[in-house]
Amino acid sequence: MNETYLSECLEKFHDLPDHIQDMVGGFEACLELKKIEDAYNVSLSFAVILIAIGELTIDDLPKYLNLKFQIDLKKGEEISNLVEEKIFAQVLDLILDAELEEETPVTEIPDTSRKFGPLTEMSLADKKEFILKTFTSEIVPALKAEPTRLQDFNIALFQAFNEDEDLEDRVEALLYNNQEKLSDHQIILDNHPASPSIANWLKDFIKKYGSDLFNEVALAEYLSQSPNIKSLKPEEKELVRKVLKLYRNLVFFPQSMDGIAIENWEIFPVNHSEVIKKNISKPENSTENPVITERQKTIFDLQKNLTKYPTTSLEYKAIHQEINRLSRK
């Protein structure tokens, strides 16, 4: 793919009304797209962008997939039907007349939430009330919730953070000051007995490991060596572990989600989440032939373009998939 063409297509996508961009390339749409990509082992982000900007029709998607990925037309039809149903069902008519849609209030666009339960279907005001109440006094019950409910809550959190840029800071402040207790016994903080509150456990951890992003090694070390940990019951130790992961996921987002598949992104830790490490091949020696050298230059330029877009965006996924495709050649 020509890098100039890719850049031009991304610019056209950004020229679409914001609500269409969100319906096609927002967090929920990316989750649905990832399910289709995983099911058929195919990269679709750029194809979705092409459809959104009118460079490709949904009817021509099977032929596109056949030419680019050698996917047979029957399977391509299945993919096309899923993309239309899950990504474009509510917006194809709007995309055909984007200029008129720019004049249409966003509130008139049909609700796009699907299958994620009642939390994600709340109004922003109701979501904020629920989120602020949780981080004020109900973190422990939330940490003990069923994984499916936590997944729902995590998606609602990402939605609310995206809609209210100040909410994340308010939530972080509540976490740092939360007084819910994680254990029956006091802990030692600054050589004095202290309440085993979430706030004090975070202070104890930060005092030892600092306020920078930390990895699983630091977390495991703290949970095995901290004097305050040694007297805990297993279930109390597990609560401390979850609180520290919650702290890492929230305070250091999006860096805390580096290397993790988008459908596994989380604020509250979910038990069955898995980390997927993605490494891009290093450039080879300068003795290689000119064709490979040109490919490396293209990969480098695309990597620079990645920094222009949020890691949750459809544009980021499209560029990332193109990098992976070039790296495998």
Low-confidence regions? 97-117, 273-293
Q: What global shape is seen?
A: elongated
Q: What is the beta-strand fraction?
A: under 5%
Question: Which sequence of strands runs across the widest sheet?
Answer: 1-2
Structure explained in plain terms:
With 329 residues, this protein is mostly helical. The chain folds into 2 domains: 3-112 and 282-328, no CATH class; 124-264, no CATH class. It is 59% helix and 2% strand. It is built from 17 helices and 2 strands. The chain has helices at residues 3-15, 18-25, 27-40, 45-52, 61-69, 73-88, 92-96, 98-101, 124-137, 139-143, 147-163, 167-176, 198-209, 216-225, 234-251, 290-306, 314-328, and strands spanning 187-189, 192-194. Strands 1-2 form a two-stranded antiparallel ribbon. Strand 1 and strand 2 form a beta hairpin. The longest helix has 18 residues, at 234-251. The model is unreliable at 97-117 and 273-293 (pLDDT under 50).
Quick synopsis:
This protein is an all-alpha fold. It has helices at 3-15, 18-25, 27-40, 45-52, 61-69, 73-88, 92-96, 98-101, 124-137, 139-143, 147-163, 167-176, 198-209, 216-225, 234-251, 290-306, 314-328, and strands at residues 187-189, 192-194.
Walk me through the topology.
Elements: H1 3-15, H2 18-25, H3 27-40, H4 45-52, H5 61-69, H6 73-88, H7 92-96, H8 98-101, H9 124-137, H10 139-143, H11 147-163, H12 167-176, E1 187-189, E2 192-194, H13 198-209, H14 216-225, H15 234-251, H16 290-306, H17 314-328
Antiparallel strand pairs: 1-2
Helix pairs in contact: 1-4, 2-3, 3-6, 4-17, 5-6, 9-11, 9-12, 13-15, 16-17
